[in-house]
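May I ask you to comment on the folded chain given beneath this request?
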Amino acid sequence: LDRHPSLDLLQGDSDSQRNYSDTVIQRILYTLDPLRAGRVTDSQMRRAGGTFCDALDSLDGDATEDICLEGRFFSYEHFYVIFSKFTDLDDDADGELSCDDLLRYGNGAISQRATERIFCLLRRGRGHIKYEDFVWFLLSEEDKSSSTAVGFWFRVLDVDDDGRVSRHDMEHLYTEQRARLLELSQEDVAFDDIVCQLLDAVHPRAWDGVSRSDGFTLHDLRRSKLCPQLVNMLCNIDKFLASEAQDMHALRQAHATPHLTDFERWASLEYWRVTEEQDQHQHGAICNAR
C-alpha cells in the first residue's frame, strides 16, 4: 500500500485501503488456510506457501509497475470486482449480507436451497455474513476447480454433514433445480437419470461398507475433477444451461488463456463490464446536467 505505484490511488482513502487489505488477506488465507482455522501452520506454508512467495516476488518483478499483473492475491482489478459485487448486494450498506441478499448474487442463478446451505456454512453462528465470508464464497463460485473450492462445495452438497454426499443430499438440491428447468421449458430429466450420470462420472469408490451407487466422498470428488459440472448441475441454473449449450465464447476464452484460472478470466470480463457501466452512467449524468 505504501510503496507500490499502482496503489497510489488509495492514498488518503482509509476505507478503500482497509477494504483492499481485507480482500488480499482473505485471498491469501483462501489458499493457505482452506479450512478457515484462522491460522497458517508450518506444514501449510511448506505445502502451498510457494504460491504466496512467488506472488511477493512478482511485485518486484513482472508486476513492479502494474499490480494487476499479479492475479493470485494482489490485483487491484480483482479487488475492485469482488468489492463491487459485495456492495451491489449490500443495499443498506451495513457491511453484512442476509440470506436474501446472497440469493440475488448472479441474478439469482444459484438455487434457494443451495444459497441457504451456503449462508449457513459461512455465517458461523452469526445472523449475517460479512465481507470476508463473501470473498470466500465468490472465489469458490467463480472457480470451482480450485482445491479450496472443491472442499467448500463438498460441504455445501453434504446437506446432512455426514462426510458423504448421498443420493438424498443430491435429490434435496436437484428437486428445486428440476422445477426451475421446467419453468424455463427445458427438458424434464428425472432425478434417477441425473444421479446415474453424476455417479458414473465421479465413479466413487466403496466407502466404509457403503455402496458406490449411494454417494461419494470428498476424495472421490477431488479425484474426478468434475466439481464445476456437478455443482452447476445441482445448484446453478445459468451455469448448468451454459455448459449444456457448450458456451463457445467461454471455451474460446479458456483455450486462448490457459495460464489463467477460471476466476481470473471471470474477473477480467467483470472489470470491463463494471467500468463500462460506470463510464456510461457518468456520461449520462454529464449530458443530463447540460
Observations:
- The chain has a mean pLDDT of 89.
